[in-house]
Design a protein that fits this description.
The chain has six helices and no strands. It is mainly alpha-helical.
């Protein structure tokens, strides 16, 4: 008889599980035909970002960039960190032998490329005058005293 009671006890959960599953299925299906009550305009308004960031690109026409602008946008990528053997900005010791080439020699090196530096320092749209401005700016930071060609208005 005790085996019979154990068998009955084992069946009890199954007896109650089916009605619970059936009630859950009925509850889920009951809402299937109803239209959603979500207000999409209100939802869109409530999830607006806290702040907006607008990026405006201002392109300066080739020929009118200063040495500092060119340095910051092109040269600094390598010269600030001395990447790929570039002389570090402001390091008079690293620039000393290069300054011996003179302004025209340094400008020619930048225009033609040297070592890992591509022609025009990677700024393909740089004019020769802009290269001169960048060379004067960068080398003056290391102690040279070159005159940066003026930007014509």
């Amino acid at each position: 008889m005790s085996e019979h009671r154990a068998h009955l006890a084992a069946q009890r959960p199954n007896r109650f599980a089916l009605p619970v599953v059936a009630m859950a299925a009925v509850a889920l299906l009951a809402g299937c035909g109803q239209k959603s009550s979500v207000d999409h305009e209100l939802t869109a308004e409530l999830i607006q970002p806290v702040a907006k960031l607008e990026i405006k690109v201002s392109k300066i026409a080739p020929g009118s960039r200063t040495g500092e602008q060119i340095y910051k946008s092109i040269c600094a990528a390598c010269h600030d960190s001395a990447a790929l053997g570039a002389p570090k900005t402001g390091d008079a010791g690293a620039w000393g032998p290069r300054l011996g080439l003179g302004f025209n020699g340094l400008t020619a090196s930048v225009i033609n490329g040297k070592g890992a530096m591509p022609a025009r320092g990677g700024g393909a749209d740089l004019t020769d005058t802009e290269v001169k401005r960048a060379v004067a700016h960068l080398t003056n930071l290391a102690g040279a005293n070159f005159t940066e060609p003026p930007v014509e208005q």
